[in-house]
Design brief:
There is one protein chain. Helix content is about 40%, strand content about 20%. The chain has ten helices and twelve strands. Strand 8, helix 8 and strand 9 form a beta-alpha-beta unit. The longest helix is centred in the N-terminal third of the chain and has 28 residues. Helix 1 crosses helix 4. By secondary structure, the protein is an alpha/beta fold. The strands form four sheets. It has a five-stranded mixed sheet with strand order 4-3-5-12-6, with helices on both faces.
Length: about 300
């Protein structure tokens, strides 16, 4: 019967993958290099497989090692969270408010919300996480985050949601693009233009599909991005156009990007997500109210 790995083996493999060497792993773990080498050798013997290959003085993980690392990483994320919480307890900062939001929302709206909370609300440590739309509600459902803010997704069991705003579709173009001279952009204007598509991971891939539903064809997608912020950065480099709402325009360089209203009935809906049945939480309620206020300002601009 094959012997199982112990925690010492797991932390050693984790450290080697992160640092790429026995020396780096030894430094990270505060042990000697021979100790790391011995533990690695024992781990490989127990598993019956080679985990690393030597290339130019570095240890490169094999496919099996990478798969093992991904599983280890899930456990370490939880362990690091516990250690961080313990440290905050020691510093008497154990009030933590964990918020997860989509990238564009986190870069544009959330900073304004936090700035509006006032000093009285800053006794808590605000822990901010950025995820694509479908993962926002999932993190709230798992209890890892107290509040989710982002694009509307299908209902998640155990999670309640409320609308915080709706925004019309905008077209982002390179600032020097000829279409930037137009006051409004129609679908027909874009048929021969390279499109930067937002992937299904972000949850808004249907925007482009709906936009060109009545056209004879779709524009050719040249790049697919999981996040609108990344897509707009691509537009700023002259690589194509993208359809989204106004949030990226609040943080992108106006010298590189032109944003114009896109003629469409579609709108993007944003929601706040929280666990059902949780006791009232003044800070969460306040953040939801601030999110609504900021979204109303953006929609009215």
């Amino acid at each position: 019967m094959r012997r199982q790995l112990g925690f010492r083996h797991i932390e050693t493999i984790h450290a080697i993958v992160l640092t790429g060497s026995v020396t780096g792993a030894a430094t990270r773990l505060h042990v000697t290099q021979p100790a790391v080498s011995n533990v690695l050798k024992d781990a490989e013997e127990r598993l019956g497989m080679v985990l690393f290959e030597r290339r130019g003085g570095r240890l490169i993980p094999t496919g099996n090692a990478e798969a093992l690392f991904n599983e280890i990483e899930r456990s370490f994320i939880g362990l690091e969270s516990i250690n961080a919480f313990a440290s905050r307890l020691h510093m008497e900062r154990h009030r933590v408010l964990s918020v997860v939001c989509t990238p564009a929302f986190g870069a544009s709206v959330l900073p304004r919300m936090v700035a509006s909370t006032g000093e009285s609300a800053r006794h808590s440590l605000l822990s901010v996480h950025s995820r694509v739309a479908h993962h926002v509600a999932a993190l709230v459902s798992s209890g890892k985050c107290d509040l989710g803010l982002g694009l509307e997704v299908p209902e998640v069991p155990g999670v309640e949601s409320m609308v915080i705003g709706e925004l019309p579709i905008m077209c982002y173009l390179p600032a020097s693009h000829p279409l930037a001279s137009k006051a409004r952009i129609h679908a027909e204007d874009l048929l021969d233009e390279p499109m930067i598509a937002l992937s299904s991971v972000e949850g808004v891939d249907t925007v482009a599909t709906a936009a060109f539903r009545d056209c004879e064809r779709m524009p050719v997608s040249v790049i697919e991005c999981p996040a609108a912020i990344s897509a707009c950065a691509m537009v700023g480099q002259g690589l194509g156009f993208v359809l989204f709402d106004a949030l990226p325009s609040l943080v992108c360089d106006p010298a590189r990007l032109a944003m114009r209203p896109f003629v469409s009935q579609s709108r993007l809906t944003y929601r706040a997500y929280r666990l059902k049945g949780r006791a009232p939480h003044d800070e969460i309620d306040r953040l939801i109210a601030l999110a609504r206020e900021e979204m109303q300002r953006i929609a009215a601009a």
